[in-house]
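Two proteins follow. First one:
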Amino acid sequence: MMLYLRSSVYAVLLLALAGCASHSPPVPKEVFIWQAPRQVLVTEINPKTIEPVVWQVVVQQQAGSLRWLRFNLLGAPDARQILANGKWRNDGFMPPNQKVRELFAALLFAWTHPRDLILAYPSPQYDVNVFMDKWVLKENSRLRWTVIWQNGLSQPNLFSIKDHKSGIIWQVRPLTNPDIK
């Protein structure tokens, strides 16, 4: 009886932990970055907070992978991730941060050339719609991200991304002050 009770408790704990595990944001198996700047400023507008937050995001191409870093405006890193073979892994001792992975994956979607989006996010799980100044990704028939390009693609580094799961909007612009590290 005690053994049965103990194994039942373990089973419940495992189910609870599995429920807490978050779904990774969509990333392509093969990375097709188009005109990706290495450094951008991202203003995060969260409907649940009063003030927007500004981050610096740095992307570094490494042999077969992309290294993603996010810093506050004082230069302190708060997230470091490596994307290799369609999988995220930690870079250094920073803890995993699902919210930041969502931002990084959304940026990767925005920086994928339109001709490569169908290959990068194949059906039936994903549905990609590309309009002149708006790109939409649906995952399992649900809106995931909408990218809206400011001034169309004439200025490909000015855009915003709406994360439909959280309601957060990220406004992206090139880093204009190289002194911010």
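Second one, unrelated to the first:
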Amino acid sequence: MKIQNKITLLFMALTAGIILALSVFIYIFTSESISASFFHRLEVRADIVGHAALEENKYRTSVYYEIKERHLGDLPFEKHTISADLPDEKERKIFPMPASFYSEINKAVPVRFYQNDTSYVAVQIEKAGKELIVISSAVDLYGLEEMAELRKLLIIGFLIAMVFVFTFGKLFSEEVFKPIRRIIRNVKGINALNLHQRLAIDDSNDDVEALSRTFNEMLDRLEITFEMQNNFVSNASHEFKTPLTVISGEAELGLRTPGIPENALVSFRNIYQESEKLEHLASSMLSLAQTGFDGKKEEWNDIRIDELILSVKEAVDKIIADNKVGINFDSLPEDDRKLIVVGNKTLLTAAFTNIVLNSCKYSDNKPVEIIIRADGTYAIVEIRDEGIGIPEREIGQIFVPFFRASNTERYKGYGIGLPLAHNIVRLHQGKVEVVSRVGAGTRFTTFLPFRAF
């Protein structure tokens, strides 16, 4: 997940937590307030009922009830019970509350209890030496409706707030990461051919400026290193080839000299063969080094993979005349545009030639099949052989320069061909997958992205 999306989600989660906590606080506070107000109203009614019951003057009793009806009104499901003492078992059935409710009844404060949406109060009243206990109950229908409306409002408000939080969080994170995205775009555009390019630095005196300066310092060091390597490879290619050419030429001239002793002839032959090997090794090493930074700076063009593989077959035929390499065209895509890749023909030819020659060599010239196909992204080339295979524990090392598998002692080689091919494929934004079984053969599958159309 992108950091930008993570920040958006974290911002949203933090804000959601704050809004949720505030909503819960508002809900609880409102609920307590409404409940306290309703209990107070119920206590006033219980007090009026109690004083009316203690009033000996019946006219005044009617006044109490008239005040209650005219100014206070009845509450939903309002009930009252009056007793001179604590309610007995029969009376308690009317108000089935726990024993603690009745034990807390005293003159000091009313007792409140809430159960199943019903509010209960117990008031002990004393007048003219007489005492009685009034227990009243009612249901706060209006309060319940208000709480339901408040709950609905808070839920809808929370959801709407989340939409706004996500939208503004996304805009906020995009604005924050705009300099980072600009750096990423600029860095992606820098390669071995334009190492002189540098990132634009804003005088913002922040971490983004420090990051840009660090990238530019790194590019300075890379440019110097690549330039030194480029010069070394260009010069070394001539410096190596010249003496090797002289040595092989002198050895060849010695072989053609008539009348030389047999031991000298053997020496000249050995010198000539070893110089050829050394020249091949030097050329391979230089090619391997050049693929690391595109030192030759060849132009890249559109290449059809099927035509390239035909060129590879021709190159292999010149080196191993009796090879058994076959090309399978049965899986070619219907849309031939999926066979066109952007690359350097010379480098790709060298890469596939090295893989095919390896397959021929390590299979003792048994049949090698090349299959060309494509998927939604890549042009794919499979090269299958029936050779000695690669030990499973060593497959991960076959692209390391100069590494040779443990079962290749009887075959000549330097461990350069496959690393060279791998570097070339990676240079073309591709990849190589290897599946092998000792004694059964090896399959190299090369994926090269075809040109977008």
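SUMMARY FIELD: The domain at 301-449 is CATH 3.30.565.10 (Heat Shock Protein 90). The longest strand covers residues 118-127.
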